[in-house]
Amino acid sequence: MTFKRLLTAVLAGTAALVAPSLGAQTTAPAAGTQTSAWPNKPVKILFGFPAASATDVIARAVGQKLSDKWGQPVVIENRPGAGGNLGSELAARAPADGYTIFFGTVANAISTTLYTKLNYDYLKDFTPITLVATTPLVLVANPTVPVKNVNELIAHAKAHPGELNFGSGGVGTSNHLAGEMFKAATGTNLVHVPYKGTPAAYNDMFGGQVALMWDNIVAVTNHVKNGKLKPLAVTSLQRATSLPDVPTMAESGLPGFEAVSWIGALVPAGTPQPVVDKIYTDLTAVLRMPDVREKLAASGAVVVGNTPEQFAAWNRTEIDKWSRAVKASGAKVD
Predict the structure, then answer these.
(1) Are 56 and 49 in contact (CB under 8 A)?
(2) What is the pLDDT of residues 273-289, one digit of tens each?
(3) Residue 47: beta bridge partners?
(4) CB of 315 within 8 A of CB of 128?
(5) Domain 136-234 superfamily per CATH
(6) How far is it, in rounded angstroms, from Cα 200 to Cα 206?
(7) I want to staple 305 with a disulfide (CB 3.0 to 4.6 A). Which of 22, 49, 225, 278 is the partner?
(8) Bond before 194 cis per omega within 30 degrees
């Protein structure tokens, strides 16, 4: 099977897999017996990425609303490291009492097969709450790179093989794999430069040491709007509302190229069902708030808010999809 055919098989249909939006939702978990005692102390939202990352931006947007609703502080805890796995492991080992909410991402789906050994099991150690939002990546370039679109980039890269590089948040991250998929789909030779998180890569992008990067639209939009980075394409099948003038990869001559990132809420397995139900009810209510939806949409995120059962199915599908991408890229981390 050619890589293009594999790429299509791996990535096609992602948009169709996104569960119905909050407005169209028709199913919900059983209400169970709600507990009036929870929460009676601060609640923590924990994840494996640094401040200013896309996960951080979304967590802070919903965290304040949850704090207002619960009458308790909602603390954002950034625990970056090991491609997001440090924070994932800490969350998996947290007490199953609802006071630690884990924001999992596409990195968890990738890590399941990228890493030869993990100290947690994403499917077994967590109970899904809801898929919070999906977000496309954006292919951005340093303004000095002499191209205005994807076609020009491909031509320039083929004329100067091995001269252009692209940064990522680390080996096996979604923005690394998106770059490898682009290379294989276009026959170009781009040099991968991994960093410990995408915020670190931006410093070198702004300085001109890094030419290109595929990064989450939530994190990259401000850099595009203030002119620090030049957008070439988004990786979703539809254009992003926050960058409506930026074409998709498909519009740029790469049909089937799609690499959607996502963020979802989970709790440690064994969390009491009434607490799971309350977190689900309150979090999805927050996601329905017009000001929250407007804020996230402005940065390019598409709010989902599906049921725990739908999010569980999404996780299984994503693990299968990205396992094929990992295999195709040849990436492996011990």
Answers:
(1) yes
(2) 999 999 999 999 999 99
(3) 78
(4) yes
(5) Periplasmic binding protein-like II (3.40.190.10)
(6) 11
(7) 22
(8) no
d(CA 12, CA 134): 16
Structure tokens at 9: 């098989």
DSSP state of 270: T
Tokens in use for 143? 């303004």
Asked whether the CA dihedral 60, 62, 63, 67 is positive or negative, the reply is: positive
The predicted pLDDT at position 36 comes to 65
Report the chain (334 residues): mean pLDDT per 10 consecutive residues.
44 43 44 66 95 88 97 96 91 98 96 93 98 95 97 97 94 88 92 87 94 91 94 93 94 90 97 98 98 88 95 94 83 84
User: Burial code of 261-290, b = ≥16 C-beta within 10 A, e = fewer?
Assistant: bbbbbbbbeebbebbbbbbbbbbbebbeee
- The CATH class, in words, for 3-135+262-329 is alpha beta
Phi (first) and psi of residue 214, to 5 degrees: -100, 115
Residues of the chain with CATH 3.40.190.10: 136-234
* pLDDT value for 1: 47
Q: Where in the chain is the domain with CATH 3.40.190.150?
A: 3-135+262-329
